[in-house]
Inverse folding.
């Protein structure tokens, strides 16, 4: 049963600390997304990668957030330093996009999320 | 700026009745629309989609309607069941570009 996994599931930290969230996409998927869920904005896209290369990270606060894919089985989202306003649920999703680009069926498979609380 | 809007944060419906969830969008370039369902402590899961060349797509109890002139889509669930209680997200995409999600509508189906 292929699924996206995320660790940790919950993280409580103090303001100023570094936070690293990890995601293992579904094997064979070539696109990975990072989203943040907040009450006010819903699901916001932070960044996404295609074949491990960053395609768009315009949704991320660049001064404190960074996203990487060290290899095809691991994506990371790092916040340094963390702030209380970063408290949210962070989702990773993966999908398989054909060589020609998105088709009419663009399903993304979401992980269970990391609930981050910054005190 | 929110390009996809779900103006009803919550909705309560009696079991067996119809649930109608609404979504509005602002970008006329969007050509593909999806609904995701999310249970607590889980990630969203894909529910149903519709291409802009259609105005209706049906899958069992779920039907999505698209009104391009009004930039509006809706999800109908008939009949509603208690297991449908979840948060529903509307999303939109223009081919090759990122997805835009709404803020979600929490549906409660009362037994």
């Amino acid at each position: 049963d292929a699924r996206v996994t995320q660790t940790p599931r919950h993280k409580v930290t103090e303001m100023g600390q570094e936070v690293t969230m990890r995601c293992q996409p579904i094997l064979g998927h070539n696109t990975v997304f990072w989203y943040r869920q907040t009450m006010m904005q819903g699901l916001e896209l932070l960044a996404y990668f295609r074949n491990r290369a960053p395609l768009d990270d315009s949704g991320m606060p660049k001064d404190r957030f960074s996203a990487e894919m060290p290899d095809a089985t691991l994506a990371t989202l790092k916040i340094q330093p963390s702030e209380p306003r970063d408290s949210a649920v962070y989702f990773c999703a993966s999908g398989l996009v054909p060589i020609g680009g998105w088709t009419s069926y663009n399903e993304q498979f979401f992980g269970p999320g990391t609930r981050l609380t910054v005190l | 700026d929110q390009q996809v809007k779900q103006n009803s944060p919550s909705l309560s419906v009696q079991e067996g009745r119809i649930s109608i969830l609404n979504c509005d969008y602002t970008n006329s370039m969007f050509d593909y629309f999806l609904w995701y369902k999310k249970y607590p402590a889980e990630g969203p899961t894909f529910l149903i989609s519709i291409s802009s060349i259609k105005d209706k797509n049906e899958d069992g109890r779920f039907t999505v309607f698209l009104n391009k002139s009004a930039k509006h889509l809706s999800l109908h669930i008939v009949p509603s069941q208690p297991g449908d209680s979840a948060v529903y997200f509307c999303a939109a995409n223009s081919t090759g570009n990122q997805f835009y999600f709404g803020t979600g509508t929490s549906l409660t189906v009362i037994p």
